[in-house]
Amino acid sequence: MNGGWLYLVAVLDWFSRYVVSWELDQSLELGFVLAAVERALAQATPQICNSDQGSHFTSPQYIDLLQARQVQISMDGKGRALDNIFTERLWRTVKYEEVYLHDYASPREARLALARYFEFYNHQRLHQALGYRTPAQLYFQQEAPSRSIH
Fold it and tell me: 22 in helix, strand or coil?
């Protein structure tokens, strides 16, 4: 962002690559991560939730939130970037198709642009790995028990 930083967290369904929820914040405080996870859990309860080992994802509040819904917690191994490959691919896509192309003047402008982008990503952007379907096409066709968020 022009003159500062924003932090983005997303909850991604690995099977479909559907971005279930996301949140943007100007600080790395825990609240924006919890808000994204709570919004995702309001849509579906996965069997497993995978994350990296960052302090947000090892916090008691995060762990308690998932355990209260009986979600198994999985964390990537240290130095194992490929454990979270679908999320890393999402970050690359968001950066190259949206963020690097714009010089956001404010957090509000960034939030609105990212909202449009994730709508496009979920409902219009065809994915070769998904047989040239959109993430939404797969996400809303699969049965709930097989869902896994990251």
Answer: strand
Domain ranges of the chain: 7-149
Decide if 117 contacts 19 (C-beta within 8 A). no
C-alpha 81/C-alpha 97 separation (Å) is: 22
Cα gap 39→59, rounded to integer Å: 18
Question: Where does 16-101 have alpha helices with state H?
Answer: 31-43, 60-68, 85-97
Res. 80 pLDDT band, cuts 50 70 90: low
- Give, in words, the CATH class of 7-149: alpha beta
Report whether pLDDT(144) > 80: no
CA torsion angle for 138, 146, 80, 126 (degrees, to 10)?
Answer: 0
**What's this model's pTM, rounded to 2 decimal places?**
0.87
